[in-house]
Design brief:
Blueprint lengths: L2 E6 L1 H10 L1 E4 L4 H4 L7 E6 L5 E8 L4 E2 L12 E12 L6 E2 L1 H4 L10 H4 L5 E3 L1 H14 L1
Parallel strand pairs: 1-3
Antiparallel strand pairs: 1-8, 2-6, 3-4, 4-6, 4-7, 5-6
């Protein structure tokens, strides 16, 4: 099982949360092909939230679908997910991304320029443990 950080726009997160489908553009096919059943996806909403709001589990193999979830022909490379209830937060209660890196939670960290146009990025076991601890301690 691998763990992945998924930077996502607020509108995209609403679609993922409603449909339980995570998608990426065709340009990300090779990267998305690295996702496997039971991998975990940490959803980080970009502006204006700039925080982690959920952890989901991949529950399907990668598939191609051009149905209109995000807009015509957008994000056809997809996996189905299930959101894990113990790891789900509102946008207003999002976890700052700096927790992932183990820095001081009081510091402001802006992810936008660093993860722009990134669909998924690997997360280490130590980073994942940091996130789980924060979800459980501040639920």
């Amino acid at each position: 099982m691998n763990v992945w950080l998924c930077p996502i726009k607020a509108r995209g997160w609403r679609v993922v949360k409603k449909t339980k489908v995570f998608g990426a553009s065709s340009h990300a096919r090779k990267l998305m092909a690295q996702l496997s059943l039971n991998d975990l996806l940490i959803f980080h909403i970009l502006k204006p939230v700039n925080g982690i709001v959920a952890i989901g589990r991949v529950v399907s193999d990668l598939y191609i679908d051009n149905s209109d979830l995000w807009g015509k022909d957008r994000y056809p490379i997809r996996v189905k997910i299930e959101l894990i209830p113990d790891y789900l937060r509102s946008n207003e209660n999002a976890i700052p991304l700096d927790v992932l890196f183990g820095s001081n939670p009081e510091d402001e960290f802006s992810v936008s320029p660093f993860l722009k146009n990134t669909w998924v990025a690997p997360v280490s076991q130590k980073q994942f443990e940091n996130i789980k601890r924060v979800f459980k301690s501040t639920g």
